[in-house]
Amino acid sequence: MTTDSTATTPAGTFSVSDGTTLQRLAHAGGYTGPNDGVPGPNTWKGLQQVGKGYGYAGHLDGVPGPATSEALQRLATKGGYTGPIDGIMGPNSWKGVQTVLTWFGYAGPIDGIPGPATNLALQVLGRIGGYMGPYDGVLGPNSWTGVQTVLTGTGYAGPIDGVPGPNTWKALQRIARRGGYTGPIDGVPGPNTFAGLAALLLRSEHD
Fold first, then answer.
1. Which of 64, 83, 151, 163 could be a cystine partner for 68, CB 3.0 to 4.6 Å?
2. pTM for the whole thing?
3. Which tens digits make up the pLDDT trace of 135-144?
């Protein structure tokens, strides 16, 4: 996916800070551009992908199995993985996942060997899916349930076209609820929607 470095946003739609929050979230959906606060079509495609999910068809049981691994491999394609989607996580699959996780605080080597640093970044990603535990690098059922929720998506059923509409915003409002948003799911974003998204992305030991 390309970047939005030359994209423009209608003046007054939202602040640069809110735009940066959206871009940070969009990295979970494959956006690879800068966090410059100016969302363009590629940011929105990433956000739409977060809403749509990665095709995870298993249960939200906190137990990673082949369906979870296949979804992780689909996520890994956003980080350069070109291998099969076969549910078998090998070094190349993990390299792709580690590349994606650099947008969620992973600073370790892209070596295809998952360890505590990789797991910690997965927990940060899992926060988007409702994980509220510590960032301790120990993946338990609650961590995996959060990751599985991200891979499932949050109800977006529209096209991945880079054009935000009400369905895109409704999906973002559902995600924002995991950060404390209590407003309606009406597809009309306001300050409380962005506050919920920003709170969700805050890195702290506990919610």
1. 64
2. 0.78
3. 889 999 988 8
